[in-house]
Amino acid sequence: MHTPFALLSAALATLTLVSGCAITAPPPRLGVATPAPLQQCSELIGAFGFASTRLTATTLEPAGRLNNAGQPVGEHCRVTGKMNERTSPVDGQAYAIGFEMRLPRDWNGRFLYQGNGGTDGNVVTADGGNSLGSGGLLRNALQKGFAVISSDGGHSSAQNPLFGLDPQARRDYGYNAIGTLTPMAKALIQRAYGKAPDRSYIGGTSNGGRQALVAATRYADQFDGVLAQSPGIHLPRASVANLSNVRRWDTVVTTREVNGQPDYESALPPVERELVARAVLARCDALDGLSDGLVNDVEACRTAFDPARDLPTCSGARDGSCLSAAQKTVLAAVHAPARNGAGEVVYSGFPFDPGIRHPGWAEWKFRSSVRTARNPVSVGYIFSSPPVADRAMATDTRKSAAFALAFDIDTDGSKIFATSGVYTDKALDFMGTLEAPEFDRLRERGGKVLVFHGTADPIFSSDHTQAWYTALDAHQKGRAAEFARLFLVPGQGHSRGGPATEQYDGLAALVDWVEHGRAPERIVAGARGAGNPGGANPDVPADWSPARTRPLCPYPLLARYTAGDTESAASFACQR
Q: What pairs with residue 551 in β-bridges?
């Protein structure tokens, strides 16, 4: 009998390959949104009514109150409120879905649901900006004229992560906040502008990217376009995989704490990660036709680079010029698929990429894997059924580190597949199964999906997202690109950063596809060098032009150098 982990397997079987999908015609094209002026703001708090909703404030924000990339955001109405206020019968805590909406004076007729990051708990500024990823948008969604909503996912930051003790709070975090807020937001837009939105979009990065894909499956009738960046597809699996590597890192650390906080970076400090990055570039950089500090041909690099062969082995003490034999073994293991004791795949592996030098890579591998704010408590309290017994690890970093070090992928990891007592939903269910057939409804009504993922992401593997897309394409009989496209971003870390061209406007490309039928054949991305108005990326190498551009190509195509200026996207073609 197969264990729950067998559901993934080498072919990523949780993303069901269904050969019987009937595809009779290309998906329909949806109409273009039309603008309308704001009619009400302060009046909304008394004039708007919606079930289980309480508006707490309405404020007309003047132009320039918010700024983005050095430019003022125009006049808009800010609305705050709460939905589904309740007291939990499980933990006695008061819960509500808190939200903020920003309604521009000059509305473009579009609605955007702004996804959350991490474990939520904060109502961030509803501007559709950095929460959508892409390296600091030069014009955010609010500047473009979208009406935008953001939320706290159904709990406060003070309730993180113990909100996982309440089953309904788990559901709100996983999917229900989106389903609850979206109809209300559209009704509020109707009241404020005198008409409902013509087109509705959802976008986010990390957990917000997962939320966007979940909305595409659970709420296909509510959204026309879906933008998922660095998405946490099967997020509980990814968290289990990251925890399972703590024991490996522990075998090669020289110190486990820095300034009193758990920190495993001594297992592979910056100078050694730089050594790995240079070795990857030496073997893989030129595979796309140009040595430029980027590995575009991820597939060819899988066989071109071998850590056992291509990294120098220390004959004595570690001095930054080599890795110990044990380090090389650990490095290969943490890049390989995570497997349980029976050899079944729990989560996909990670490609070797020069973005390993990025400080964010270390943050996820060495600190988030052991500290309270990230993996240990997420797995222990939000994804496990029942939650772990020791609540003190939610505030005591040494206890969370001890939990991570003792974590067993079989006995502890299997709890993300379990139900227990009041916890009747498995973590993979309320966080989104995202199986290929679940996207049929969105396709059939003309909706579109754009997914972006950095190949140096240290927590959510681009290989896992690639496997998801491959399964989706198989289900669609090779025609997934008619409504869904995946763009890999070489060198980019989790959501942003890394030695990469990671500033691009995925939202504009999505609107163009949904409303004008222009599918993105390539998307030009910039490097965010010094002087970039959206903020410089400190990970951009000194020998790159600060204005470097590259095309991001729809998978499985990749950017290959043809001829011309090596710093310009115009010199590259999207090819096999």
A: 524
